[in-house]
Amino acid sequence: MSSATVVTGIGVTAPNGLGTDAYWSATLRGQSGIGPLTRFEPQQYPARLAGEVSGFTAEDYLPNRLIPQTDHMTRMALVAADWALADAGVVAEQLPEFSMGVITAASAGGFEFGQRELEALWSRGGQYVSAYQSFAWFYAVNTGQISIRNGMRGPSGVVVSDQAGGLDAVAQARRQLRKGVGLVVSGGVDGCLCPWGWVAQLASGRLSRSDDPDRAYLPFDAEAAGHVPGEGGAILVLEDAEFARQRGAGRSYGEIVGYAATFDPKPGSGRPAGLRRAIELALADAGIRVQEVDAVFADAAAVPELDGIEAEAITEVFRPGGVAVTAPKTMTGRLYAGGGPLDLVAALLSIRDRVLPPTINVTLAPQYEIDLVTGTPRKAAVDVALVIARGHGGFNSVMVLRGGP
Amino acid sequence: MTQQKELTLQGLTTILKAAAGADEEVDLEGDILDVEFADLGYDSLALMETGSRIERQFGVRLNEATVLSATTPRAFLAVVNESLAQAA
Q1: Is A8 helix (H, G, I), strand (E, B) or coil?
Q2: Distance from CA of B49 to the nearest CA of A (A)
Q3: Which of A235, A371, A372, B59 is the Cys-Cys partner for A11 at CB 3.0 to 4.6 Å?
Q4: pLDDT of residue A1
Q5: Is A248 left (phi over 0), alpha (psi -120 to 50) or beta?
Q6: Are residues A134 and A234 in the same domain?
Q7: Does residue A227 lie within any of the structural domains?
Q8: What pLDDT is recorded for position A2?
Q9: Pair (A10, A148) in one structural domain
């Protein structure tokens, strides 16, 4: 039983929209979810904007028993998984429990929960630390909670590779489907909008210090000066196409046809960055020719050196202006482990609706010879899309999607 | 620290709810003294957290293994109240 890997369900918690429809309509309107941090007092920090998911009240969606034991990002992940499974028409109790796995990505774990408990430890003593700290902070917690909540006991795991992780998790899910697992809940929902998480991100030196939400995150712009962090992401239901057919699934959003990951050489080595090779290897894995690709969803680091590497890799593979490029994450901020999966969603919905969402606020710098979709959405018959995600420290991941049959 | 002599069933359910939430399908205000914690929706971690909160609130030390050996509210209250009596 090894056919195609198809996406049959989507659940979104994004800064510019809660739920797939809200996210997608906001994204096509060019509506941003970036604004001043409200989760904690940001004035003493050099970066003060974030893409916060607003209007999310966990108690409205989750059983009361799960509230004391979950970080904010885990609650969003559980709800996104619920929505994705409902979208796929999956009733988990009706399927064999070992035929379903959970593989998500994380970048830091439940830091907001963890910070609260560490504060209790140091200020009041060990007996004030929640017993749930034993797992609530942990990288693998979203996978574990989704698995328990839905009774999914097949191959499961977590991938941690910063912003590349979301694609790497989906790739791992695809491997498991090819080995015979029927269904894997995958993707990532991330977030660490608390002082502890914030200072960890500040240490990267890549956060925008602007206080203007419309000028803070400008990938491929001459004024690019770092990114805005966000929270949220997307959970996808991935299935072996034959398994999906046998359980009577409806239409799929599309197929994961190719993937590759490379690692950058040691800085100063003089060897080229690994992104171009990742794009070429992903296309080779997909068996898709360069000219068949209709759109690229860029990593969009908004750090001039990294934008240069990405624009050059795209131009070298696809020729100058040879493919439409966009970065809807300009409306959400970078979501770390949630970023790649949300871009997969944007790509799949672009295929469905034959339209590419815009990159907002950006004026393309003249040195980049890419066809960046700016300002407004662009009508386009998208059949094949390529998604790029890079993680801090040299991770390059590329995934290729094609519309469903 | 409030030094109370005895933990009541109502006190226990209040702490349980704060520590670990409550299963929507269980009536904790009902006759639950002899209902297994598992049937009330609580696992060992929920009871550990509950025990920890009781320690803080009552200023006592509870033996973890003894606490976890109590599988019903009646047995749990007996363990806690014995510790409270010894500490008094």
Answers
A1: strand
A2: 5
A3: A235
A4: 43
A5: left
A6: yes
A7: yes
A8: 55
A9: yes
| For residue A351, pLDDT beyond 90 | yes
Tally of domains within chain B = 1
Q: Verify that A197 and A157 share a domain, yes or no.
A: yes
Could A131 and B48 be called an inter-chain contact, meaning their C-beta atoms sit closer than 8 Å?
yes
Confidence (pLDDT) at B13: 97
B57 at interface of A, judged by CB pairs closer than 8 A? no
- End of a domain among A191, A212, A246? A246
Residues A123 and A60 in one domain: yes
A307 and A285 part of one domain? yes
pLDDT, average across residues A203-217: 97
Q: How many CB atoms lie within 10 A of CB A268?
A: 6
CB pairs under 8 A between A and B: 36
Instruction: Indicate the number of domains in chain A.
Output: 2
Query: Residue B56 and residue A67: Cβ atoms within 8 Å?
Result: no
Can you tell me the distance from the alpha carbon of A17 to that of B40, in angstroms, rounded to the nearest whole number?
A: 36
pLDDT at B88: 77
Residue A153 lies in a domain: yes
**How many secondary structure helices (H) and strands (E) does chain B include?**
4, 0
Per the model's pLDDT, the better-predicted residue between A222 and B65 turns out to be: A222
In a domain, A389, yes or no: yes
A95 and A148 housed in the same domain: yes
- Which residues of chain B lie closer than 8 angstroms to A64, CB-CB? 21-24
Q: Residue A360 sits in a domain of what CATH number? A: 3.40.47.10
> Is the same domain home to A326 and A395?
yes
B24 inside 8 A of chain A by CB = yes
Query: What is the spatial distance between Cα A32 and Cα A17, in angstroms, rounded to a whole number?
Result: 9
Residue A404 confidence (pLDDT): 82
- Residue whose structure tokens are 């672009």: A350
Within a domain: B4:
no
Q: Are residues A96 and A238 both part of a single domain?
A: yes
Whether residue B2 is contained in a domain is answered as no
Please tell me the predicted confidence (pLDDT) of residue A405: 67
Q: Tell me whether residues B22 and A64 touch, CB distance under 8 A.
A: yes
Nearest Cα residue to A52 out of A24, A18, A10: A18
Instruction: Output b/e per residue, A128-160; b: 16+ Cβ within 10 A.
Output: bbbbbbebbbbbbbbbbbbbebbebebbbbbbb
Residues of A in contact with B21 (CB under 8 A): 63-69
In this structure, is residue A251 part of a structural domain?
A: no
> Is the separation of the CB atoms in A401 and A172 below 8 Å?
no
pLDDT interval class at B4 (50, 70, 90): low
Which tokens belong to B76? Answer: 């749990």
| Domain that includes residue A11, residue range | 5-246
